[in-house]
Amino acid sequence: MMSKDKLIMEIEIETLERSMLETKVGTIVMIPFKGSVKSDLFSGEILPGAVDTQLIDANNIKHMSARYMIDGKDASGMDCKLYIENTGYFHIDFPRPFHTIPKFYTDSELLSKYLHTNQFRGEGHRDHEGLKIKIYEIL
Fold it and tell me: Which of 110, 95, 130, 96 is nearest to 11 (CA)?
């Protein structure tokens, strides 16, 4: 982690049963998941339908796109939803942590002023407790 970037959110992920398709030109893995977010900005639960789609091409480059919606409350206590599309690509023997670029959409008046205009980066950390996605504001 770059020390100047600000941690704004940590998402705890629990993966579910995956689907896989192997072809001559690549492998596709779809990993549904659930989880939760607790942060000073927003807290909530990931809604059904969340999926991490990974395409591993002939060069062993993994292209990933995780898309999910979270139902919760913003920092003011207002009910809202937060949609995240988290993308990245890296060699199959990916670095630890792996790095992503998150994009946000929200119906929260408070959060939209911040999340729709700033630049962010993500890190995926896997340990004995599972997968955590840490989102940082790039300062």
Answer: 130
pLDDT tens-digit map of 27-41:
999 999 999 999 999
* Residues recorded for the chain: 139
Which tokens is 132 given?
């955590």
**Of the candidates 81, 63, 65, the residue with the CA atom closest to the CA atom of residue 73:** 81
For residue 75, which of 104, 27, 43 has the smallest C-alpha distance?
43
Q: Identify the residue whose tokens are 């599972």.
A: 130
Total domains in the chain come to: 1
Q: By residue range, what is the domain housing residue 119?
A: 6-137
Neighbours of 9 (CB within 10 A): 24
The model's pLDDT over 83-95, given as tens digits with 9 standing for 90+, comes to: 999 999 888 776 6
Do the domain assignments include residue 1?
Answer: no
Cα separation, 132 vs 24, whole angstroms:
32
**What values do phi and psi take at 109, rounded to 5?**
-60, -45
